[in-house]
Specification:
The complex is a heterodimer of chains A (98) and B (216). By secondary structure, chain A is mostly beta strands. Helix content of chain A is 9%, strand content 33%. The chains are: A mainly beta (98), B alpha+beta (216). The complex binds zinc ion (ZN).
Chain lengths: 98, 216
Amino acid sequence: MFIIKCPYCGERDVTEFSYGGDATRAYPQDPAQATPEDWHAYVYERDNPRGWHVEWWQHSQGCRQWLKLRRNTLTHELGRTALPHEPLSPDDDEGSDA
Amino acid sequence: MAEITQRRSPLGGRAEARDINIPDGGTPGVALQHRTGLCITQAAAYPGCDAALRASLAEIAGSEPDARPNRSVAAPAGRLIWTGPAQYWLVTEDPQNPASDLAEATAETAAITEQGHGRVCLRLSGRDARLVLAKGSTIDFHPSHFAAGDCAQTGLLSVSCLIDCIADEDSAPGVGPVFDLYSARSTAEHFLEWAIEAAAPHGCRILTPGSGIAAP
Ligand SMILES: [Zn+2]
């Protein structure tokens, strides 16, 4: 059980959120030129890291905003949250504000 | 074909007036009332059109919605409630239904959807109302944190619910805080049963279902 900081609603219980998967995958920059290998990597390839990761979560019982959450898969420690258009990487070193 | 305009309550007569666990000569800790005859109009701005939508809502409701998250406003026409980024509810009373006027005014700026048929509203008020809410959600309902003009969408015992605080200890002395709880029609019965069960230990007076969205 943990508490996620929604960019709009503030700290809310994880039970209000839905998990949306790996947020480190980038949509092919030029979809028309993307190869089947590019699409395969975007749709299927996942790293399953041990440690810091960035995940999609949706505040589904609240404001319904999708957000990125930096989370440590080993310790369950939480880092920053960000809106979808804001950059957030697993190596983000801005510290935890969750 | 005949037009069907009569509303049917999703609560099927389960919210009729009665007293639960109120000792003789005692006062109820909370009151519950099914609010009937509400029109809920949802407005969601297209990208970059939040300010334009708020201006249109101001024209139709008489007040501008608060753009800050989780804030609600008592407007002349009804309640204006923040429901998400660049999204608002305008809650009015029958027969005032602003949906078509709003849709016309916001044709280029927002999507307008009527939600009244799909929601049920319970009004929870009284001395112990905050304690009842705290049984269902992890949100902090202390008066310093959740007062008149604050709203939140959360789960009450896992049922999705929008909670709008329309009056608090300061604005309605003697009445206690007043919350309007909006939940989906499909879970309305379960929602009412939870509310009654949570309220019963405090002494609960269920009021005759009624209309109106103004603060008491
Ligand atoms: Zn939120």
